[in-house]
From TrEMBL:
InterPro entries: GHMP_kinase_C_dom (IPR013750), GHMP_kinase_C_sf (IPR036554), GHMP_kinase_N_dom (IPR006204), IspE (IPR004424), Ribosomal_Su5_D2-typ_SF (IPR020568), Ribsml_uS5_D2-typ_fold_subgr (IPR014721). This is 4-diphosphocytidyl-2-C-methyl-D-erythritol kinase. Keywords: ATP-binding, Isoprene biosynthesis, Kinase, Nucleotide-binding, Transferase. One of its GO terms (biological process) is terpenoid biosynthetic process. Residues 64-141 form the GHMP kinase N-terminal domain. It comes from Dethiosulfatarculus sandiegensis. Pathway: Isoprenoid biosynthesis; isopentenyl diphosphate biosynthesis via DXP pathway; isopentenyl diphosphate from 1-deoxy-D-xylulose 5-phosphate: step 3/6. Its EC number is 2.7.1.148. The lineage of its organism: Bacteria, Pseudomonadati, Thermodesulfobacteriota, Desulfarculia, Desulfarculales. The gene is ispE.
Amino acid sequence: MKLDIFAPAKVNLFLSITGKRADGYHELVTVMQPLSIGDNLTIDTDSKELSFACNQKELAGEDNLVVRAARAWSRASGIKLTARFYLQKNTPVAAGLGGGSSDAAACLVGLNSLHNMPLSSQELAALAVKLGADVPFFLAGAPAICSGIGEKVSLLADFPELHYVLLNPGYPVSTQVIYKKYDLSWTKPKIRNRIGLSPHKGQSWANFLFNDLERVTLKEHPGLADIKQAILASGARGCLISGSGPTVFGVYPGKEEACRAANRLREMNLGWVAACKGLPG
């Protein structure tokens, strides 16, 4: 049996660091939305062994999150896993878009579906958080406020339809390095409290978009400031670095405006550009 699964990318519309745990993980509050752009994972159970391939050969190792998720699911379910996995990677790697985490979530959901749901949603969530802080969000598959290290997911109902342009400059950024260089003294409680006021309740996007990590990423990669200015000049209502970056996204009034902006930005040869919309869940 074969199953094709879409693994959406995401953007962080709001991200505030709230503290650091004894184990080194940072606690945060973030608003994330899955996107209409992402990767595609194919699982084929007509196989005598577990194998994994990817259109980007450098990602096809045993340490890929798809393989790790598959093995974790097999241990938890008690089902010996024999399947072929093929990942069509469509989004940049180490880009702040959650690609690896989304691929892992797609693997968990796909395997569970193909084997008649041996694990409950709670059991899948427990597996997800061990694979990565963003994986529980992708299991939920809808706009959400996430807290803790990201594993506490509260879905947001009636989230507005948003249109985006993503621009990635073509180099990876290490999430671990960005978090390590973040100074907790920069955290501002008043900014964090803004999370209770969602933009569809009358607040402008320019005032809502916020990312504590942006300060570090811009310092490490100052050229991203020029990309932000280019996105704003293309008509975005607001723009922000997603997660630890380096992908920058702009929020646009509608699909036509986003597509026009994407074409304009492609002509500037600043990097990988994609127009997309947010998924409601």
